[in-house]
């Protein structure tokens, strides 16, 4: 990668890191201050949202590549496979929120700003990062199986915990209201969305690589 492009990538990563961390920390503060449940429960609930987890992965990825690139963590997040997986996770956040969840809640004040940052700005910026800075010739079809681990683990955690404490972060995962069969159908549909996006990103990555001469 040319030096000027490397410098541009660092500036972009720094900007995205600041935005992502600001959003997560401010959202955490508002969530903990809500008083909707005991603080320990609120902390667990905060990290039960796929939106939060995916934005956290974006923040960790950008910061690690920028600040600790030579460490094991930095090298892990710098891989094309990991950056592509995170791109897809955060894209799913944007797609599901803006097509299914956007009009379910009325937000006020800073919550409106943070909501747009979490569900629109950060996903869009990281997708642009993937398009312009991530080398795509390393992508392989068998990456899909590793990429599925995070969303499947997340879903199992949310459903098991929800059955114990009766809290589900998203209405389409609420077994209490929808029943197990309906929730499993929703999970199946979302899994298909992930698989479709996985395949699309790999296909596009290979096309980009051919045009670039790899």
Shape designation: globular
**Portion in beta strands:** under 5%
Order of helices and strands: HHHHHHHHHH
Count every helix, treating DSSP H or I runs of 4 or more residues as helices: 10
- Structural class determined from secondary elements: mainly alpha
> What composes the largest sheet?
none
Mean pLDDT: 94
Explain the overall architecture.
The protein is mainly α. It is 79% helix and 0% strand. It contains 10 helices and no strands. It is globular, with a radius of gyration of 18 Å. 25% of the residues are buried.
How are the elements arranged and paired?
Layout lengths: L2 H30 L6 H8 L3 H18 L4 H7 L1 H22 L8 H24 L9 H5 L1 H17 L9 H4 L1 H33 L2
Helix pairs in contact: 1-3, 1-6, 3-4, 3-5, 3-6, 5-6, 5-10
In short:
By secondary structure, the protein is mainly alpha-helical. It is built from ten helices and no strands. The chain has helices at residues 3-32, 39-46, 50-67, 72-78, 80-101, 110-133, 143-147, 149-165, 175-178, 180-212.
List keywords for this structure.
214 residues; mainly alpha; 10 helices; 0% strand
């Amino acid at each position: 990668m040319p030096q000027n492009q490397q410098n541009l990538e660092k500036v972009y990563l720094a900007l995205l890191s600041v935005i992502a961390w600001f959003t997560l920390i401010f959202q955490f503060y508002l969530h903990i201050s809500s008083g909707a449940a005991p603080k320990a429960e609120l902390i667990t609930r905060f990290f039960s949202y796929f939106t939060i987890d995916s934005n956290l992965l974006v923040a960790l990825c950008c910061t690690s590549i920028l600040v600790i690139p030579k460490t094991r963590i930095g090298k892990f997040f710098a891989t094309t496979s990991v950056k592509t997986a995170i791109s897809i996770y955060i894209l799913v956040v944007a797609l599901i929120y803006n097509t299914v969840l956007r009009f379910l809640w009325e937000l006020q004040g800073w919550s409106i700003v943070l909501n747009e940052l979490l569900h629109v700005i950060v996903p869009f910026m990281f997708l642009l990062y993937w398009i312009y800075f991530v080398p795509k010739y390393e992508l392989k079809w068998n990456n899909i199986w590793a990429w599925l681990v995070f969303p499947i683990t997340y879903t199992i955690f949310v459903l098991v915990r929800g059955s114990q404490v009766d809290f589900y972060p998203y209405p389409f995962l609420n077994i209490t209201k929808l029943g197990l069969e309906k929730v499993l159908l929703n999970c199946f549909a979302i899994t298909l969305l992930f698989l479709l996006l996985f395949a699309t990103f790999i296909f596009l990555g290979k096309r980009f690589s051919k045009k670039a001469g790899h």
